[in-house]
Amino acid sequence: THQWRGIIEEYRDRLPVTETTPVVTLREGGTPLVPAQVLSERTGCEVHLKVEGANPTGSFKDRGMTMAITKAKEEGAQAVICASTGNTSASAAAYAVRAGMVSAVLVPQGKIALGKMGQALVHGAKILQVDGNFDDCLTLARSLSENYPVALVNSVNPVRIEGQKTAAFEIVDMLGDAPDIHVLPVGNAGNITAYWKGYREYAEDGLATHRPRMWGFQASGSAPLVRGEVVKDPSTIATAIRIGNPASWDYAIAARDESGGFIDEVTDREILQAYRLLAAQEGVFVEPASAASVAGLLKAAAQGKVDPGQRIVCTVTGNGLKDPDWAVAGAPQPVTVPVDAVAAAERLGLA
Ligand code: F0G
């Protein structure tokens, strides 16, 4: 009987750990790569979804956090801190519990989904709501980590990128080679940086014959990489990617240019359409930010940018349960029936 052991044990020789490193894990990674039937039909391609909402805390952040908390523990840290739009804080809080550490999280006031706030609370994080946006939170977290005894676990910490690159390894291991195109949502730009590093490493070591083109999508109201300048007051319903000054800016541009890809924007409307399509037609419930990858693929297809016959992977980064408001909003209220089979059958249209 084999259970997936978590990304550090599964990819130990490709990560900066030694035999004595105290591994802190919730057995993250090993997430499903799901063939997307409707998206494949629509694009004429072979489309797969990398379902990162299946990670222990419900997002891809766990891959980076197992590394960040493991290294913090190895270095003797007793407390960690992060800025977050919600998922990083949920992950940091959970892994800090596993490591017996204190976690502090800085979130933009009123702009994180309820499920993510609940996670940080229930895992016992010290939470500060900052009167500012994510970019302000990150500035504050950096300053605190420089001046006080607390380790920064945002993706500006390079071991986070090391952990997150394992998603690319899993995809190549599963498909037998790299896809032609990899599509993902972009916020602080750590994840596009990490996937590109993972694909590069596998290709350099002969484990893939080529590297994919990297296609990144930002929300229109929070698209600094598309505009080529910092967005001072970012806005989007996809709160996870409501970021105006991505920390990994230069790495994202390098991933785009070295891979022959592009970074474009999708509107909130396009994001919500893709969100509903994923749930209603592919059976995959993601949070709105995650749907930006799929919205982007559909936009590119409508623009004639997607040649048929290609193999495409879209990362869907977080679980839909994190932010269920958007699933409920606008949907009809379920009707109430008595305990009566005839009445129920009628309401269901069976009779
Ligand atoms: N999707 C989700 C669900 C996210 O939570 C994030 C980032 C992204 C996409 C974008 O990834 O930042 O590496 O480009 N969330 C961070 C957080 C900012 O604090 O949880 P990125």
Quote the beta fraction. Answer: 5-15%
Structural class: alpha/beta
Adjacency order of strands in the biggest sheet: 1-2-10-7-8-9
Tell me about the biggest sheet?
Answer: 6 strands, mixed
| Ligands, deduplicated | ligand F0G
Q: Let me know the average pLDDT.
A: 97
What integer value in Å does the Rg equal?
Answer: 20 Å
Uncertain segments = none
Q: Report how far apart the termini are.
A: 47 Å
Number of DSSP strands? 10
Taken in chain order, the helices and strands follow as HEHEHEHEHEHEHHEHEHHEHHEHH
The general outline is: globular
Helix content: 40-55%
Number of helices: 15
Function: Catalyzes the gamma-elimination of phosphate from L-phosphohomoserine and the beta-addition of water to produce L-threonine.
Pfam families: PALP (PF00291)
Catalytic activity: O-phospho-L-homoserine + H2O = L-threonine + phosphate
Family: Belongs to the threonine synthase family.
Report on this model:
With about 350 residues, this protein is an alpha/beta fold. The chain has 15 helices and 10 strands. The protein has helices at about 5-10, 35-45, 60-75, 85-100, 115-120, 135-145, 160-165, 165-175, 190-205, 225, 250-260, 270-280, 290-300, 325-330, 340-345, and strands at about 35, 45-50, 80-85, 100-110, 125-130, 150, 180-185, 215-220, 260-265, 310-315. The strands form 2 sheets. The protein has a 6-stranded mixed beta sheet with strand order 1-2-10-7-8-9, sandwiched between helices. α5 links the parallel β4 (about 100-110) and β5 (about 125-130). α8 (about 165-175) packs across α9 and α12 (about 270-280) packs across α13. The chain is globular, with a radius of gyration of 20 Å. The chain starts with 6 loop residues before the first helix and ends with a helix. The model has no long low-confidence stretch (mean pLDDT about 95). Ligand F0G binds near residues 61, 86 and 188.
